[in-house]
Amino acid sequence: MIKLINLEWMKFRKNSVVQMLLWIFIIFFPTLIFVGKEESLTANNPLLKSGVFFNFPTVWDWLGYDGNWMVFFALGFLVVYTISIEISYKTMRQNIITGLTRTEFFLAKLYIVLIFVLIATVLYAITGFTIGWFHSADPSFAEAMDNDWAIPRFALMSLTYLLFAMFIGFAIKNSGLAVLTYLSYGILLEPMIRWLGHAQIVEEGISKNLYPMNAAEDLMPMPFYQITQNMPNSDGAILLLSYKEAAVTSGVYCVIFLGLTYYIFLKRDM
Amino acid sequence: MPVLEINNLTKRYGKITALNNLSLTIEAGHVYGILGPNGSGKTTTLGIILGVLAQDDGSFSWFGDKYGANPRKEIGAILETPNFYPYLNAAENLDIVRVIKGLPPQNYDEILKIVNLYERRKSKFRTYSLGMKQRLAIGATLIGSPQVVIFDEPTNGLDPEGIAEVRTILQNVASSGKTVLMASHILDEVEKVCSHVAIIKNGNLLATGTVGSILSSDMTVEVMSTDAEKLRNVLQESSFVKKIYDHKDFLECAVDQSLDTATLSQHLHDKGVILTHLVSRKKRLEEEFLEITQTK
Predict the structure, then answer these.
(1) Which member of A41, A46, A160, A233 lies 3.0 to 4.6 Å from A216 by CB, making a disulfide possible if both were Cys?
(2) Ranges in chain A, pLDDT < 50
(3) Residue B105's closest CA among B143, B146, B149?
(4) Is B167 in the same domain as B180?
(5) Which of B180, B214, B248 is the last residue of a domain?
(6) What is the CATH number for B227?
(7) What's the rounded Cα separation, in Å, for the pair A169 and A161?
(8) Are residues B81 and B179 in the same domain?
């Protein structure tokens, strides 16, 4: 395991795209939520007072939603990129010729995904705790941790995004097309399938919410959406999966992505 | 014990059979050339025995299966193009090869000097010329001093100077006692470097053996006279001439090995033909190759 992680480090530590995306993630993930921070937009209305987003427990939701985008874009892009350039540079093939087994190559990429999940989750936990502690009126550890399993939810969300990225990286041989497919599926294709296709055929129920990117997103949804969930609506539309539903669905997708990626990689000619 | 045994290897791409029941045995110390025109199945063969392509049928065995399912750490190989991380320098790229092979840290100066890249060892791979990239790839095959080295079209795309440099390195590697397997469509390269040769075309093995045995016992003689038409007629009537090929400035004849040029010259002189050009040589691999691949 250490050998494979070290090998990945040797391969990518001097890659400028990897360095740039990692720094973007490390700098912007903890700081992006401060953009537009205003303590008293309208002093008498606490809902419009953005400072509330930095208190426990709201900070976990707000920072989680920030991380939702950052993990998908920065780390997901990074995972697709680091796999697909190995295909386009033909270094994946050369690694196998030199003596790596296919399973070792696969595991090396999986370890990187797990390390990214760990980095993102630790950063989320430290940043959320720090911001909440300094913004809450009378903070306590118990109050900080009363967050509806936010840290494991964030880890599972990150894992789902990054295993999807890993699947795309291995499945699509062209690096540009792989990155494009990853981003466009998450941003455009899946929402279009859900709302313009699935929702037109199956009008009620949660089935249209069970798509992979949506399930992962619902683990750390936009805080505002959680409010609308409790509002009455005319057609019984379900905007969000519950945390439990989202966790189970994401977990199933993680297993599917992992299994499919390994199967494709073992069977395919290079 | 053979280093490599290939038994009835078959590979299909849809309806195209890239390899058709190919069988080869390569003994330790052989410098083996796989010779064939483009698209004959050379790279497919190497891809299968190096684990990047799956065969549809047949089997192969490295070192008598001494190293289990992954013998590739005991082999240094390049397949088609040199493949390295473009943003890393020569030593950093070689270090990745070392780690994959599970070797302890080492200094690459000696290898880089062998492949004449020592002065450019700190330059990024992407700044190298094609010849330099190819030389680095050859250098990478030498890490850990593997028992077997494999080169696939090692001089492809190089200028004459690059070809000469790479060929010298290959000859040095071949003379070091390693088992060498080299795929090439350049006959001259195989003839100069290899001790054994297998000729394949359309995925079929046409001939295999030592380079000496593949070379036939026939001689080739180039002749020309002031009266080319008369020369041709006399040659056609001569029992020791097997074939005549027309060239722009001379006629080329395949003749019995026993025939010496003095006898030929006297025979033609007796028939009233005065020669202006007479060159005798052993048949080259190129001619054998063309004959084998065109007739089978």
Answers:
(1) A160
(2) 41, 43
(3) B143
(4) yes
(5) B214
(6) 3.30.70.100
(7) 12
(8) yes
Question: Which among B70, B86, B99 has CB closest to A6?
Answer: B99
- Amino acid B218: pLDDT: 66
- Judgement on whether residues B199 and B236 belong to the same structural domain of the protein: no
Going by C-alpha positions, the residue among B196, B191, B166, B192 that lies closest to residue B181 is: B196
pLDDT tens per residue across span B198-255: 989 889 988 888 887 775 556 788 899 988 889 999 998 888 888 888 887 888 888 8
Neighbours of B39 (CB within 10 A): 14
My answer on whether B182 and B254 are in the same domain is no
Angle, vertex CA A58, rays to CA A54 and CA A64, nearest 5: 90
Judge contact between B199 and B24, C-beta under 8 A: no
Is A264 an 8 Å CB contact of chain B? no
Coil, helix or strand for B3? strand
Residues B16 and B135 in one domain: yes
Number of domains in chain B: 2
Which whole number is the average pLDDT over B5-27? 92
Residue range of the domain that includes B179: 2-214
Q: How many CB pairs under 8 A join A and B?
A: 73
Contact B86 A10 (CB under 8 A): no
Q: What is the mean pLDDT of chain A?
A: 88
Alpha-carbon gap, residue B97 to B60, rounded angstroms:
24
Q: Kindly state whether residues B125 and B252 are assigned to the same domain.
A: no
Q: Is B239 on the interface with A (CB under 8 A)?
A: no
Whether A120 and A67 have beta carbons less than 8 Å apart is answered as yes
| CB proximity A9 to B under 8 Å | no
Same domain, B168 and B26: yes
Domain ranges of chain A: 2-32+46-267
A260 burial (CB, 10 Å; 0-12 / 13-18 / 19+) is: middle
The CA-based angle A74-A79-A80, given to 5 degrees, is 100
The answer to whether the CB of B196 falls within 8 A of the CB of B31 is yes
ipTM of the complex: 0.86
pLDDT at B21: 92
Q: Least CB-CB distance to B88: which of A14, A267, A269?
A: A14
Mean pLDDT of B273-296: 74
> Which positions in chain B touch A105 (Cβ < 8 Å)?
none
Which segments within B28-141 are labelled E, that is strand?
31-35, 57-62, 75-78
- From residue B233, give the alpha-carbon distance in Å to each of B227, B263, B271: 10, 18, 10
Which residues in chain B have Cβ-Cβ distances shorter than 8 Å to A6? Answer: 99
List CB contacts (< 8 A) between A90 and chain B.
Answer: 81, 83
Q: Report the residue from A3, A6, A98 with minimal CB separation from B72.
A: A98
Query: Are residues B203 and B227 located together in one domain of the fold?
Result: no
The answer to whether the CB atoms of A93 and B79 lie below 8 A apart is yes
Residue B247 pLDDT: 81
CB distance B182 to B36 below 8 Å: no
Residue A80 neighbours by CB under 8 Å, 6+ apart? A165, A166, A168, A169, A178, A179, A182
pLDDT of residue B215: 58
